[in-house]
Amino acid sequence: PDMPVRNLWGEKEVRQTLPERSPFAHKGTFGKGLVVGGSVPMPGSVAMTARAALRSGAGLLTVATTKESIPAISPLVTEATFVPLEQKDGFINELKDLDFDSYDGVAFGMGLGTHEEAQQLLTRALRSTEGPLVIDADGLTALVNVLHELKERSAPTILTPHPGEMARLLDVSVADLLKQPFRYVRQFAVENGVSVILKGAFTIVTDQSGQQWVTTTGNQALAKGGSGDVLTGIVLTMLMQDQPLYAALNNACFIHGRAADLLVEEKHSHYDLLATDLIEGIGRVIRTRS
Ligand code: APR
Ligand code: MG
Hints:
The protein has 290 residues and is an alpha/beta fold.
């Protein structure tokens, strides 16, 4: 790569930063998260993000999604509450009643769709979310046209692109991005005042000051639709725990990748591991912090 990899985020860093939970804690201690996205054709996306957020230890979790898909999603995330949103052709088309600033963290964009309204919905999320905002998937597609909004935010914004999504944000080809991923992402993060998790076989975390880390956990069993939605849920919860932002992002990537590694060692293969299996492996990693 274009940068010597000095900041590897591994087991030692996880042990040093992932907080123990106080025996006197209550659910408010661990954050009230909001997941916004999903649609009639993509109901599973937010279900996976929400369940992963809960398995990572969120105190409370709400899913705001298309009215019609809630009966399909709610049995998959029993502990969540729901905000039914108006839809057009199966996609969210307004966020009217959604009170973004009553949450400690928001994840936006999984399964949202690439319809015309997506851009206004994202703008609303960017302007109304007063805590950390994670933007993923179709949220990143919408972001391409409203990049200028990023600098207006005072709370942290975290983008979780795969290389295709990152290349689109940068307006360069994937091939060019992958020649100098550290340099491209650092420049983008500093310029726009955001943190970026660039996903792939190796995942690069960049904070808004331009510091960078690499996580090497994870394997080819993750090369399946849904793995990214799970990561977003873990990121959301980690951001609501008592740890620095860079630690939250790196710990999320470590947990996600290590869960896949352990599951492949212990009971799955690169072929059969599903994103939903990954969610059930999160606890295995956190329990031993390795
Ligand atoms: N080794 C390690 N980790 C991997 C590997 C690999 N070979 N392949 C994938 N991963 C990890 C990535 O690091 C990332 O955390 O799996 C996750 C994949 O995330 P995404 O690419 O966002 O995939 P996902 O969102 O689940 O599914 C693809 O996203 O952009 C949309 O249109 C796209 O519908 C599609 C969906
Ligand atoms: Mg994705």
